[in-house]
Amino acid sequence: MQAFVLTTSLGFLTLLSAVGDLVALKTGEVFTGEVAALSEGIITVNSPHSNQPLRIWNNQLQKLRFDINNSTEIPKNSQRINLRNQDTLPGEIVALSDTHVSVETWFAGLLEIPREQIDSIFFGVTPQETIYRGPKDLSSWQGNENQWELTSGRLSSRDRGSIGKDFNLPENFIFSTKFTWENSPNLRIHLCSESVTKAGEAGTNSYLLYINSQGIQIKRVSPHPKDESRLLYQTLSSYESRLSDISAQVIDLECRVDRSNRSVQLSVNGEDIPKGFDPSEPPRGTYIVFESLSSNRRDTQIEDIHVQKWDTQTQRFRAEPRASDTSDTLTVDDGDRFSGAILSLNTQPGEESFVISCPQSEAPLTIPVKNCSVMYFSKKDSLPESTGDYYLELQTGGRLTIANIKLGSTHLEANHPWLGPLTLDRRIMSSIHKGNSQ
């Protein structure tokens, strides 16, 4: 049977439920189904709307998002390796020499990475249990009366109004999303709400992220003690920055809610704002509600919604500054920092530790791995340019620049500009984007 390339209108495809993998093209066209292969410039999609595979030219690819089955547990790694080209990947250091770091990964096997290619390594990165990742469809969302629509895995506002979902939020959780606007940011996100209808109404008991052109505020919203028809707003913390000056008109938000200790912490584009503490009993609701305050169509857009159970012990990393570009740096969990040369890794069970030579000590120091927080390698050498045709976002966090993709049913074969040929377990893949990650 002769292969064909399907084109269709966005208007028709928006009627399709975004179930399974999703292929979004630069032209605005969207295809859903199962991505069976990607090679030689063609994306092959098994679509429920076609009796034969769709074959789509990938030179128009904008984003390829893989369906993530949240019920399927995948292996986890507790360390994160950050390369100097800003690629990141989870793994475990199993050996270290003067020239290379051996990193064991469950999805790509053993990687031998030259030391000069590594910027830093984060320790104690414990991936959290995913509760929700999407959105994929609107069937479980509530409150929408045609004020919101779902296009290409993105919630877009059509008018002022709310849309929410019962996420069965645990006691402590991590909520993250990407927020985009076209004219002016004007959004309220209600966390721990009791329902969609109560968000912002009388009787509300929740945390509120209020986002506008002047910045972001975290507020505690509760019924007024003297008049339950009124609401009491207490500002817990704020991010004071003119969002309207951000040319890209997009921000990445991460909010860590620790109801056990009555604290809320927000991260904006990787920058922590001061932690807010709730002076009252925390709200017990399990809903998250998005409320657009803009009447302009598609002025408010939400995507990459990720809700995770949080053990509260795993913190978002604050990269302590390196001591010097010309020396290695090792920071431990109590804040102490050692600089010099990281010599070796002892892998004896129960005695795992790094040996580091410091100018302040005549003898090398032994630092247990369990106490390590951040490790930096010296940046003595310049490196070749790192470019690729695509970048791959990983399900457990991280991204890789890749080229020469060949995607099969269980694995992805690709070339990395520094690491060379890679064979990756398909389960690690969250999405593939056309273009270099930088």
What does this structure look like?
This protein has one helix spanning 10-13, and strands spanning 21-25, 30-39, 42-46, 54-57, 61-65, 79-83, 88-96, 100-105, 109-114, 118-122, 130-134, 148-151, 154-157, 161-166, 172-181, 187-193, 206-212, 215-224, 227-240, 250-258, 263-268, 271-272, 276-277, 287-292, 300-309, 328-332, 337-346, 353-357, 365-368, 372-376, 390-394, 399-407, 411-416, 420-425, 429-434. It folds into 3 domains: 10-65, SH3 type barrels, CATH 2.30.30.100; 68-125 and 317-438, no CATH class; 130-309, Sandwich (Jelly Rolls), CATH 2.60.120. The protein contains 1 helix and 35 strands. Residues 1-18 have low confidence and may be disordered. With 438 residues, the chain is mainly β. The chain has a 10-stranded antiparallel β-sheet, with no helix packed on it. Strands 9-8-7-6-10-30-26-27-28-29 form a 10-stranded antiparallel β-sheet, with no helix packed on it. Strands 11, 12, 13, 15, 20, 21, 22, 23 and 25 form a 9-stranded antiparallel β-sheet that branches.
